[in-house]
Design a protein that fits this description.
Elements (H helix, E strand, L loop, with lengths): L1 H21 L3 E4 L6 E5 L5 E4 L2 E3 L6 E5 L7 E7 L5 E7 L7 E4 L4 H4 L6 H15 L19 E4 L4 E4 L2 E5 L2 E5 L5 E3 L4 E10 L3 E7 L4 E11 L6 E2 L4 E5 L9 E8 L2 E3 L8
Parallel strand pairs: 8-10
Antiparallel strand pairs: 1-2, 2-5, 3-4, 3-6, 6-7, 9-12, 10-11, 12-19, 13-18, 14-15, 14-17, 15-16, 16-18, 16-19, 19-20
Length: about 270
């Protein structure tokens, strides 16, 4: 009986500690698959999401995202300067995704010939390296706007079927418009990649908004910035095109936080 009482006492203490800690932890954002969360806590407190360390800036701000297929819950753990552990359960709203069929793609763009594998792998590494560039300034606090005008033809999370064959889900927001339409910076940031001709994405820009949060702009016909440039929200950085794997002129706009692809539409200042 004493063992059972001690067990319930431990559980009660755990709950109380978790609740007390919640008042010291600020979280805002979209608690949904594809959502981005902005948090703040004491500078000396360590933060973990599902046992993975989340880096903070000098003011105690931190970011994390929920990937497309994240489970219904996540566990946020904090460890304060006295090594006390606190836990907070986060409920993650589940989504249903549409299936999108795209036909008439060039066969070599759907299934690349083997002679292009070396090039493709090199470009993948180039992109990974760019997204890891350290940008400490919190540009993301400016918020985000739509980077181009046009018709939405593709959405985050949709299951792609290319030329009749199921492929990876789509992780961007597709904005269709004529070639040459302005593409603007969705927020302030630093250009970490600017390439005119990548195999799949064609003309491509990647911009860092701080703390590992990046935006990508694909299929561009013209690029107006260089790596290292600081850009400002609303500044023209490129023009819409149909380069790379594309059936027509459009912008494929993507957002990512440290390897977790998130829904750009959820970030817009509405």
């Amino acid at each position: 009986m004493n063992v059972l009482k001690n067990f319930y006492l431990i559980i009660l203490i755990f709950i109380l500690v978790s609740v007390n800690n919640a008042s010291d932890l600020e979280l805002k954002g979209n608690f949904i698959q594809g959502g981005l969360i902005i948090g703040k806590t004491d500078k000396e407190t360590k933060v973990f999401l599902d046992d993975t360390l989340v880096t903070k800036d000098s003011e105690g701000y931190f970011l994390f995202g929920f990937h497309r297929n994240h489970s219904k819950r996540a566990i946020l753990k904090t460890i304060d300067k006295n090594k006390n552990h606190f836990f907070k359960e986060l409920k993650v709203e589940q989504r249903k995704y549409i299936t999108q069929k795209i036909n008439n793609l060039q066969k070599n763009k759907v299934t690349p010939p083997k002679e292009f594998y070396k090039r493709i792998n090199a470009e993948i590494e180039l992109i990974k390296k760019a997204k890891k560039v350290l940008v400490t300034k919190a540009f993301y606090k400016k918020g985000f706007i739509m980077p181009a005008s046009g018709i939405i033809t593709g959405v985050y999370g949709s299951q792609r079927v290319l030329n009749g064959k199921p492929r990876r889900p789509h992780y961007g927001l597709d904005i269709a418009n004529k070639t040459g339409t302005d593409v603007i910076a969705t927020s302030d940031g630093i250009i970490v990649l600017a390439e005119k001709d990548l195999y799949f994405s064609g003309g491509t820009i990647i911009m860092s908004h701080g703390q590992g949060l990046t935006s990508s702009y694909l299929h561009l016909s013209k690029i107006l910035v260089r790596v290292g440039d600081k850009v400002y929200q609303g500044q023209k950085v490129a023009e819409i095109g149909s380069t790379g794997r594309a059936t027509g002129p459009h912008l494929d706009w993507r957002m990512e936080i440290k390897g977790v692809r998130i829904d750009p539409n959820l970030l817009l200042n509405k």
